[in-house]
Amino acid sequence: MRQNARLILVPLLLAGTVFYATPCAADASVKTRLDARGVKYEVDADGDYKVTYSYKSENRTQLVFVSGSTQSVGGFKVREVFAPAAKNGITGPKAIELMAESRSNKIGSWELQGEVLYFVIKLPDSVNASELESAMDIAAQTADNKEIQLSGDEDAL
């Protein structure tokens, strides 16, 4: 019996060490670009740069994230800028509407991750500080406008 317990316990402990979520290191090149523009941010547990936009005239805020890592696709290093716009409530008809809207966007598209709707802009990582900030501005404004459209006055994201 004791031998069987060890046979079960050891793989579980090893799996725990493999899947233990450690904070990811944030990419210093993003820090350099955000600092160059004077953008205030914090780094979250995933290593993403979190920025809170404040729309004082509307008494609203909007979160925007810059991915702390890149992905390689076809020789490109791609970095994501993403902003949450809604939680829950995205059904089939609304999802189709968002897909159609994404088709007309010049930059960025709507994506669902779990139950959260995000506006996501995928950029070559070679963008400069000004271009990165511009993408963040677009993501923040687009997501906040959609949040207003979907939830009225609620300002949860």
Main features:
Yope Regulator, Chain: A; globular; disordered N terminus; 7-stranded antiparallel sheet; alpha+beta; 4 helices; about 160 residues
Structure description:
There is one protein chain. The protein is α+β, with helices and mostly antiparallel strands. The chain has one domain: Yope Regulator, Chain: A, CATH 3.30.1460. It is built from 4 helices and 7 strands. Strands 1, 2, 3, 4, 5, 6 and 7 form a 7-stranded antiparallel beta sheet that branches. A hairpin with a 2-residue loop joins strand 6 and strand 7. Helix 2 crosses helix 4 (129-151). The longest helix has 23 residues, at 129-151. 25% of the residues are buried.
Layout of SSEs?
Blueprint: H1 2-19, H2 28-36, E1 42-43, E2 49-55, E3 60-66, E4 71-73, E5 76-87, H3 92-104, E6 109-113, E7 116-124, H4 129-151
- Low-pLDDT ranges: 1-23
Gyration radius, in Å: 19 Å
Strand content: 25-35%
Helix vs. strand class: alpha+beta
- CATH fold naming: Yope Regulator, Chain: A
Question: Roughly how many Å apart are the termini?
Answer: 52 Å
| Count of helical regions | 4
Q: Give the mean pLDDT.
A: 83
Shape: globular
Tell me about the largest β-sheet: 7 strands, antiparallel
* CATH class value: Alpha Beta
Number of strands: 7
Taken in chain order, the helices and strands follow as HHEEEEEHEEH
Number of domains: 1
The CATH architecture name reads: 2-Layer Sandwich
Helix percent reads 40-55%
